[in-house]
User: Fold this.
Amino acid sequence: MNDYFKSVILQKTGASSLFEKEIIQELWSGYGKIIRIALENAALESVVVKHVQLPRRHNHPRGWHTDIGHQRKLKSYEVETSWYNTYSKDSMARLPKCFTIETNLDETLIVLEDLDEAGFSLRKQEVNWKDIETCLEWLAQFHASYLGKVPNGLWDVGTYWYLETRPQELEVLQDKALKNGATAINKKLNSCNYKTFVHGDAKLANFCFSKNGQVAGVDFQYVGGGCGMKDIAYFIGSCLNENDCERLESKLLDTYFTYLHKALGKKNEALEKEWRPLYRVAWADFHRFLKGWSPGHWKINSYSERITAEVIKNL
Assistant:
């Protein structure tokens, strides 16, 4: 980290000095890293810094070395800065406070609250029903916060797998029925009357849990407009096996909509009537991306195939 960025952190936190405590993770494809910075003589013990540095060469883990991918990632970091600058303060759902955002040449620094220090120190790879319910409540609060809002400065259509941003994955897709139906699936999902902001990457790994059962969300590179069912389908697929996805489908949706109406302050029956059938359409939309991007992925299963076939048949 250059001296300018260090001075910015010191100024914004009031610390007398700082040091890099640990690298939390490298950013996808070598675009920088997320670092925990320890502070001396400050009100905070530490902050988390997302340090975006454009790579000199593309290094995609799955071999997608293209300018389309590069431009998508650049846009995603612009979206995240816009999100924290303009929209994050309006979220009912818990997320890290943003202390400052600075850009210097081709590097960007996002200085965030350390959620570990704030009590959200647990990361989970396996979840129980209570954990799932808490995350669904978080998503409901998030969607309620931005219902009807226009995503200026964000993705017009949120999620990292949005069809128009993934032409190469569609091109290599071997499932002909799904390939032919992709545009219609996309249109059905994104022409809904009720739109909100979707998180866009609401997998289990992007939720931080507290010991008392609360949750906070992180990583807002793919926030944009759309139907909230995209986040729900993607989240459920990230933490349940196919049998539980099918067995619990109605209960999961009932739980989400109960929390959504609560967050909205009243029951919106028209919204639920429109969104509930779009859950499976959202599932099929992500399935389309996954089968083109990584045909051998563990998330591709008989439940996904069956739902997608049903969606295509009903288009």
Remarks:
- Strands lie at 17-26, 32-40, 46-53, 98-104, 107-113, 196-198, 207-209, 215-217, 224-226.
- The radius of gyration is 20 Å.
- Residues 67-87 form the longest helix (21 residues).
- The longest strand covers residues 17-26.
